[in-house]
Description:
Layout: E1 23-26, E2 32-37, E3 42-43, H1 56-80, H2 85-103, H3 109-119, H4 123-129, H5 138-146, E4 148-151, E5 156-157, E6 169-172, H6 179-189, H7 197-203, E7 205-207, E8 214-216, H8 217-237, H9 242-259, E9 283-290, E10 293-301, H10 304-340, H11 347-358, H12 363-390
Antiparallel strand pairs: 1-2, 2-3, 4-5, 4-6, 7-8, 9-10
Amino acid sequence: MSDISELLLVERFDADRGWFDFEVEKQDDGSEVHYAAKRFGLLRDDVSTGMDQLPAERILELIAAFKQKSLVVDNEAQTKLRVAGRQILYQQLAEAYAFGLACFSSIYNREHLTTVLSQHDLGKQAKALTSTGSYNKWNAITALLYGRWINTDTDTPIADGGHESIANRAYRRDRSAEKYGCVLAALEGSKVRVPDVVDFITTAKFKSSEDGTVSGGILALEMHYRQWAAKQAAKRAKKPTPRQIARRQQDRANAVAKAENPANDDVFEFAKPAQLPKAVEFGRITFKVLGDKLFVVGVDGWEQAKYDEFVIAKGRKILAREAEIQAGIDAKREEVKESAGAVLVNLRYDEEFADLLADGADVEEVTAAFKATVADMKAKRLQKQTEHLEQFADPIPD
């Protein structure tokens, strides 16, 4: 696999229950169990939202169940039913996709997922999930679901659950399954819901721009992803000049300062609630007002990148609005000057009229005042010129 697979960039930890169609199974006691992926036991409750979490222990249970109830069964079925092999694989990828979406459904799951990755000697993937750089998060999912423990003394597979008793062991990723990381990323990038995965892969097409070759299925989605990732990598390779970097940084800083300004009506602060997890540094709350208090019913944790994106966008809107208002003031100012038929050279008067306009004064009233001021200045100047000339005038003979 090309290293380009390590560059991907689909947004992390942002899925929700809308990606699923839940299957309901009634129990003997009358209760109901809601499944997100029934075959390996993925529950609706595993697709956490807001502050709910998917613990590391549960992630490990789901990985083991996927390998035992999906991989083993599918491998046997594909051996017997070669014609239906593709559809079996596509359904398996839909289940892998469902597992990944559950892991990514809440930002709080990131810590648990990185713990599981570290336990499987997948430190590179664990570190990448917490970095600010670009990374295909689905590589972590395929590494967990399609890898296996190996006894390094005998170079033989270790039965599921038996690796802890063997000192010389290593977890090996299934290199042939790494392309599935591209496929899963392409599915998420196209906002494909879990129940639509099989049909989406079945009908996927990709036409090579080099030789016109048309690919389908898994290969088509892999090529779509790689093409997109290559374009993103090319964009990042075009390094901006130091001046451009400084200007962008200053623009971002200006926007953040404007958005976070306490003078804004929607900016305020209060003490951090004790029940808010320590790991939460950014996010959005859902609340209603009860008397003189805020009643909070939900907190959606954000990564800093998402917070920065939101704040910068907000700040830029405020700056754009201020620029629009200032442009209007400048236009009125020029309108007054043009209506008065003169350019005021006395900057003190010029600033006074600009202040009036900024305070919302009527343009016609300001124009009239401007004209009166100019006329008064002209009259005074003419009077002074007349008085000066009279000093040198000859007496008028009788």
